Amino acid sequence: xxxxxxxxxxxxxxxxxxxxxxxxxxxxxxxxxxxxxxxxxxxxxxxxxxxxxxxxxxxxxxxxxxxxxxxxxxxxxxxx
Length: 80
Known about the structure:
The chain is of the alpha+beta class.
């Protein structure tokens, strides 16, 4: 089993995004356009790294990797 905290810590130790890792400050999936944009990111990561795991970390500042978290309303809407 993957230790999720350790995985996130390891991913955030590097400030650059790459073919298996992307970070987002927030996602807006409350409407069709937001869902489409999020799915576009999922597909891009999947296509760029088809034989391994890929990760999107949500709730992180792009510039300094500061964890800002997500609110509960956002997690409740996460059923796509």
